[in-house]
Design a protein that fits this description.
The chain is mainly alpha-helical and 144 residues long. The chain has helices spanning 6-22, 25-28, 35-46, 54-61, 65-77, 99-119, 125-143; strands at residues 81-86, 89-97. A two-stranded antiparallel ribbon has the order 1-2. Helix 3 (35-46) crosses helix 6 (99-119).
Amino acid sequence: MTKEYVSRKLHSLSNLIMRYFDNSPIKKSLDQVTGTNGWIIGYLADHDDRVIYQKDLEKEFGITRSTASKVVNRMEQKGLIRRECVAEDARLRKLTLTPEAWDIFHKMEVDHTNLERKLMKGFSEEETEKLRGYIDRMYENMMQ
């Protein structure tokens, strides 16, 4: 009997999600945006009501400081984000989206909505909430 690992199923699902975005006509029209850039743009847009720092990206995406630094530097060079001083601490730089990145976000939002609809087809609201809870718990387990 073949053992069905949850991790293998999640990995396969993750690959399908990435392929969905990579093959999207909207994504293809946005040459300068990598998959990671897209996720970061989405995160910053979704959290526009609060100050986001690089360390928040590290935590949210489970990436190292050096990886986050490289990605943020490249996104800044591409004109997608800006690092801005905060009044409370001159050493800290909040991350904000440029107008170009906001345009990209609005285009990507269409794809994301379509993906969510496809992924959650046939799930009740209760099942969807339970699934989110399970995924959050798995994430916390991995962060410990």
